Amino acid sequence: MRILAINDNIEEGLIESSGGMSIRHRLPKVSFFAMLGFMEGGNFEQGTIELGYSGGYEAIDFWDLNNRVQQEAKALKKAAAAKKIPPGTYDLVAGPEISGIVAHESAGHPSEADRILGREMAQAGESFIKKEDRGMRVGSDIVNLVDDPTIEHSFGFYKYDRDGVPARKRYLYKKGLVNEFLHNRESAGRMGEKSNGASRSSEWDKEPLVRMSTTYIEPGEYTLEEMMEDVKNGIYMRSFTEWNIDDIRFNEKYVGREAYLIKNGEIFEQIKRPVIETTTVKFYSSIDAVGKDLQFSAGTCGKGDPMQGVDVWMGGPHIRLRDVYVR
Amino acid sequence: MDLNKIYEKVSRVSDQAAVKKVTSRTTQVRFSNNAIDITNTWNEELVTVFLAQGKKTFSFDLRDERALEDTLNRAVSALKGIEENNDFVSLNDRKNSYRTKGNRDEKLRLLNPQEFVNSFIDQVKPFFKRVGGVFYSRSISEEIATPFNSGSQGQFGIEFVARAFNDKDYPVQTSFMSSSDEDFPLLEKQGEEIIDLSRNVRNIREGEEGKFNVIFTPLCFASIVSYTIPMASAFQVDSGMSMFAGRLGDRIGSSIFTMYDDPLEDSMINAKLFDDEGTPAQRTPVIEKGVVKNYLHNFSTASKFKTETTGNAGIIAPTPWQISVEPGNESIEDMVSSTKKGVMIVNTWYTRFQDYREGVFSTIPRDGIFYIENGEIKETWRSIRISDSLLNIFRNTEGITKETKKVKWWDETLPTKSPYVQVADVNISRSR
To answer: Does B431 sit within 8 Å of A277, measured CB to CB?
Structure first.
């Protein structure tokens, strides 16, 4: 079973303001979406692939698309036949797809200043971070979370935001501490600060809101092998299926799609849909190793009313967490 | 843009064409922290074009008639290179006639959005730390032309949502949606409703895990069925990503549970006379007395499934219009007072599925989670999640109220008329 879609578009714009801003841009993009389902003997497993690229159809090679889809299909086939593990406390090695969704949901969203100020209170909600919380510990000291619109070919790429502010890299969490909020001019003005260029809108006639671009966990020093060899009883969650998070971005759930049991540093067997329900602070505080690799996947981030979907990348390296409750 | 001129040009280069023009005027007032943030008015005109040459199909949008020639040339050129769409059979080739709508909306149209919102804020402000929300009024007119049918339809509607936080930062929410003056008094009562709801907030604490008897309010149940009914689209069934696949005629729910796609309910904002290929809209039971009764079809999917269209085109993928859940005989007061141990949930969001085939999902309750013991609300919970399957929810439905409410909230609910629904043994989980 499958649903496949490939999209391309070219966004052209001219932004001018009474303050003297005049910025012309042209940005081509390509994206790919697949929803795959595998069923055999009454066992079913579903998965999605979302890829995005700022540029042209060289994206197909950049993504290594054929291999990626085939790998996913094979992994789903094995996952459909896999068995659940008993609930309990395990070490967790999470792949870049998990790092990415966690970065987006529980670092990017709660750092959006308009949410912190309550402007999205009736829709996507607010934030567990309050405006006086810079410096609050939310993770271990090896955890660095970044949002950066300037990465070439990233799906959330831009050079100037919708308010005309130059784009730049922002450390949302630094060494495990809340560091910087994402701002547009409105939220920055309300907090008495300067915008850091996070103003985006999905269309010319929708209001610019505070948005992410490419949000990721900054890579560290470990290889995947080094992380695994120190795990006696753990889980390697390579990708996820169902996920959600509450409207203050604190209580979250991730269900593994391709996941394996680790015993004494080795992959033992594929397992079916391990479930983590945890909090943002518990998740980031449990990280004791950050990989040196870095991969991104694409998404359409929904926010605002009327709903505005904007293109984003999210990613990170492999990471290792100690003592996570899994069911 | 002139629909007939566009249709004429498109039909010259196609075997079949469907052209739809939508003209809309939308006014929005958004507010947060007890003040209006922004007022918008959008005047929009959009033409969507579907054309087929044999079994090759192409669709495009048009916002400027001057772009037609160029866009059409590119469409014709693209058609040469693309493969046949074997799922396309034909547009509906019967000559149809359409009903007339029966709702009155003069009072709703005369409402001043900013005055309404300001008066709402003034009314509820003394009872809450802060309130936010959104008001929409929207007037839409549609015209359609196909080789076999033409028609026009229009609808005016109002949506209003408010979320208010008390002095302990606990939120409650109310929602209103209607196209009928008959519902005007309910709109005026939204302030009272959210204040009354907040009076239930007491003994706030983290919720518990386990199996609970859950009373879903109309807003919360609307969200559940809004994630359910799109899976009845024949496109979704055909893709295999649907809990309805292979279950036509099967009992999947309690015999008291019936749910319609209901475009004939003119008091709701997405009422329709016809679909995108000119088929008359109809009331379609998707689940009737617990049994899967129909998938939602356009003409082509109906041909593929050897049945009749249900008037739900989307020419490529059939789509639901708006939902009615059949009311029952109970009252919400009796439902609460007869609950020994249970939870009433006002709203939910972030519903995601790990298994579309079995409807296995989780969703995050919000805006009022009231723990009931021996018929009384004893506590107010937060930080819980419903982790269950839609099949369990519908199978374990034990009570439905007579009272219904029309709701629509953000992208989480389709326009829905729902009663309160009581479900046994709902699995509640939480972070550890």
So the answer is: yes
- The 3-state DSSP class for residue B188 equals helix
Q: Which CATH number fits domain B3-195: 2.60.120.200, 3.60.21.10, 3.30.1330.10, 3.30.2290.10?
A: 3.30.2290.10
Three-state SS string across A23-61, please? EEEEEEEEEEEEEEEEEECCEEEEEEEEEEEECCCCHHH
List the Cα angle B361/B365/B367 in 5-degree steps: 155
- Do the beta carbons of residue B134 and residue B117 sit within 8 Å? no
> What's the pTM value of the predicted model, to 2 decimals?
0.97
B410's torsion region: left (phi>0), alpha (psi -120 to 50) or beta? Answer: left
B251-309 tens-digit pLDDT: 999 999 999 999 999 999 999 999 999 999 999 999 999 999 999 999 999 999 999 99
**Phi and psi angles of residue B409, each rounded to the nearest 5 degrees, phi first:** -135, 115
Evaluated on CA atoms B384, B390, B392, B394, the torsion sign reads positive
The whole-angstrom separation of Cα A167 and Cα A169 is 7
Chain B interface, best mutation among A210, A239, A240, A246, by max B CB count within 10 A: A246
Contacts of A121 in chain B (CB under 8 A): 32-33, 130, 132, 163, 165, 171
List B residues 229-288 in contact with A (Cβ-Cβ < 8 A): 239-241
Domain boundaries, chain B: 3-195, 197-226+327-429
Whose structure tokens read 């439902």? B335
Burial class (CB in 10 A: 0-12, 13-18, 19+), B140: middle
